[in-house]
Amino acid sequence: MGDILVKRGSVVDGKIEELVVQFHGLAERTIDRDTALKWMRDGHSLIPTVNGKRLTALQLVDLGDESYAIRHDNASEPEDDLPPLPGAAS
């Protein structure tokens, strides 16, 4: 499984709207929440980066009933939460 760097992101109404990510050596691309969830369930690590510094990997939190949250902590809260990343510009 690979590390995927998270460069920017936005959360709207407690759900990730989009993440700007980069695979090693490739151009940035924008993904939606469903893609992020699928990649995390497949075992990929989403690593936020701020000013070139890698932060702790985002956590996939199982809320039960096949419901998940993506968080930068592992709190069992029913909404997504990112570290202070720049906003994603569509």
Low-confidence stretches: none
Number of strands: 7
Give the termini separation.
Answer: 27 Å
- H/E series: EEEHEEEE
**Total of helices:** 1
Q: What spatial form do the alpha-carbon principal axes imply?
A: globular
| Percentage of residues assigned to helices | 10-25%
Largest sheet: 5 strands, mixed
- How much of the polypeptide forms β-strand, as a percent range? 35-45%
Strand order of the largest sheet: 3-2-1-4-5
The radius of gyration is 12 Å
Oligomer: single chain
| Helix-strand makeup class | mainly beta
Mean pLDDT across every amino acid position: 90
Overview of the molecule:
About 10% of the residues lie in helices and about 45% in strands. The protein has about 90 residues and is mainly β. The strands form 2 sheets. A 5-stranded mixed sheet has the order 3-2-1-4-5, covered by helices on one side. β6 and β7 form a beta hairpin.
List the helices and strands and how they pair.
Layout: E1 3-12, E2 15-22, E3 29-31, H1 33-41, E4 45-50, E5 53-54, E6 59-64, E7 67-71
Parallel strand pairs: 1-4
Antiparallel strand pairs: 1-2, 2-3, 4-5, 6-7
